[in-house]
Specification:
By secondary structure, the chain is of the alpha/beta class. The chain is globular and about 40 Å long.
Length: about 190
């Protein structure tokens, strides 16, 4: 099973990805973790990324895609994978689709966890308080959510147009959301 998890910050993607990894027995690939690992390993792409980040710039889509291609070529992805944090924009979605077609691992589903904006603000505020993060005040959270919506709306439409998007209600207990995700994967329909 090859999945992309989509959802705003605080929607529960990371939490559910860990559970899905165990359930599906496939690796969970977070582009943030992948990037940090490549930099720490001192790979050619990691060194390029480190230099770019040291300048305060964003790592290019080309470098991220190269890291993903390398990661997806490993044997543990033969039965599938869960992507978290990528794609974040339409260009990345298109490039990922081409990469997966080239390596013979087409995407099965893109799962979008939908959570009401005010509930996301409350979740992130609680997380910020628990983790001592000052940057998660309600105003900055709403701004991050607005930017997320602007950037990912085309990605959501992309997967919808390709018949891969499954929308899952991301509100409720972790178990309730997980059950909905598993149902969406099994039935191929949205679960609210």
């Amino acid at each position: 099973m090859r999945l992309v998890l989509l959802g705003a910050p605080g929607s529960g993607k990371g939490t559910q990805a860990v559970r899905l990894k165990e359930h599906l027995q496939v690796p969970h690939i977070s582009t943030g973790d992948l990037l940090r690992a490549e930099v720490a390993a001192g790979s050619a792409l990691g060194l390029q990324a480190k230099e770019i980040m040291a300048r305060g710039d964003l790592v290019s889509d080309e470098i991220l895609l190269g890291m993903l291609e390398d990661r997806l070529s490993r044997p543990d992805t033969n039965d599938g994978f869960i992507l978290d944090g990528y794609p974040r924009n339409l260009a990345q979605a298109d490039a990922l689709g081409k990469l997966l077609a080239r390596i013979g691992q087409p995407m099965d589903h893109a799962l979008q966890l939908e959570v009401d904006t005010e509930k996301l603000v409350a979740r992130l505020a609680g997380r910020a308080q628990a983790e001592g993060r000052a940057d998660d005040n309600p105003e900055s959270v709403r701004n991050r959510l607005r930017i997320y919506d602007e950037q990912t709306a085309p990605v959501i439409d992309y997967y919808r147009q390709h018949g891969m998007l499954k929308v899952v209600d991301g509100e409720g207990s972790m178990d309730e959301v997980f059950t909905r995700i598993v149902e969406a994967i099994a039935t191929g329909v949205d679960v609210g």
